[in-house]
Structures are given as C-alpha cells and as structure tokens.
Amino acid sequence: MRGLLRQQRAPPSGTRPSSATRRSAGDERRAFGEDLVRRYTADEYIRALAAATGRSYGFIHQMLVEAGVQLRRRGGSRRRNAAQSSEG
Asked: What is the C-alpha separation between 39 and 75, in angstroms, rounded?
C-alpha cells in the first residue's frame, strides 16, 4: 500500500549515531548551546552554524530560542545613512 511510513531501522549494534542524528542531553547540550550562542552573537548566521555543526537549521534555531537569544531579523542589516533617507 502506497503512502505508508517506512519503519526506521536501528543502527547496527556497537555503532554510534552520527552527530547529526544523535540526541543531545545534559551537560553536552548545555555546552553546545553556549557555543552556538557565542557564535550567533558574534554575527554568524544560523545556516552557517547548521552547516558547520552538521545539524539542521531548525535544531540550531530551537537551541538559540531555548537559550533566550534575541534572534536577528531576516535579510541582514537594512540601515541607510541619514543622507540617503532624507533624499527619498
């Protein structure tokens, strides 16, 4: 029957899941979150953090939100200097 969900296979015994599929917990998650906060507040993009860590955009976003980070708006800085804003 089409449309049925495929069953997920367990990894072979004795192997560890990759960092992208492994769950983070406790001190490891806290330390990872602190590193993400430090890098994000130093103007690194969420997508760049996701690519560098092998995690998804959604995971990085959620970690930052859980840490209480004020997320930047999309599209980067759109500020104009005073001379440009008065012209038009």
From this structure: 18
Percent of the chain surpassing pLDDT 90: 49
How many domains are there within the chain?
A: 1
Placement of tokens 């490891």 in the chain: 28
- Give the structural domain span for 63: 24-69
In a domain, 11, yes or no: no
Query: If 0-12 CB within 10 Å is exposed, 13-18 middle and 19+ buried, where does residue 55 land?
Result: buried
Is residue 36 a part of any domain in this protein?
Answer: yes
pLDDT digits (tens, 9 = 90+) for 9-47: 555 555 555 555 566 678 899 999 999 999 999 999 999
- Whether 65 is covered by a domain: the verdict is yes
User: What number of residues does the chain have?
Assistant: 88
